[in-house]
Amino acid sequence: MKKIFKKNQIAITSLAIMIAVAGYLNFTKSDVPTVTSYDETDESLDSIDTMDISDGDSLMSEKVDDEIETDDTAAIGDAVLTQAEVSEYVAGAKLEREQTHSKTKESLNEIIENDSLSDDEKQDALEKLTKLTEIIEKEAATEQLLNSKGYGDAVVSISDDNVDVVLNYDELSQADRAQIEDIVTRKTGYGIDQIVISKMNMKES
User: Fold this and answer.
1) What average pLDDT is seen over the chain?
2) List of long-range contacts for 167-176, beta carbons under 8 Å, 24+ apart
3) What confidence score (pLDDT) does residue 21 get?
4) For the chain, how big is the Rg over CA atoms in Å?
5) I want to staple 155 with a disulfide (CB 3.0 to 4.6 A). Which of 11, 32, 91, 93 is the partner?
């Protein structure tokens, strides 16, 4: 009877030890990360790094594109005048010139018709009026000839000392300048050193 009791006690004790060992193993196994979870963590980190780099490249690309668009805008800003702007400029310049001539004519005619003035004063006014008429004719003839030679939209203004020629151009070659000067000297009688050729620019508002 005692032998049976001892065998049962030994079996129970062994079983208890086995259960305790199994429980301990399960507990320690749940705390240690598996190889699979570690690999997944590395993959997620690699994914984050890759996204950061691509985002940086995207930002740099957008910055370069912005700089290119700014350069293009500046280039557009430096473009030549449109035909509408040229026509507006020419019309305004010629109108201003004609108004000046008209006022001068009116003043000279008042002197000529004024009976209280001397004959010398009237004669001087008459000579100035004749000279003004010649200037108006020369300006028109010079512009017409320049236009026939391919230099259209020119504005020519003659004063006592020089001839101003305003043209619409990007670059004026030496050959073009020589031809323009030849036309102006033949039509106005002024020397080359009295000719001023200027590029057409819109007045700032």
Assistant:
1) 76
2) 167/197, 167/198, 167/199, 167/200, 168/80, 168/81, 168/86, 168/89, 168/199, 168/200, 169/199, 169/200, 170/80, 172/197, 172/199, 176/151
3) 62
4) 49
5) 93
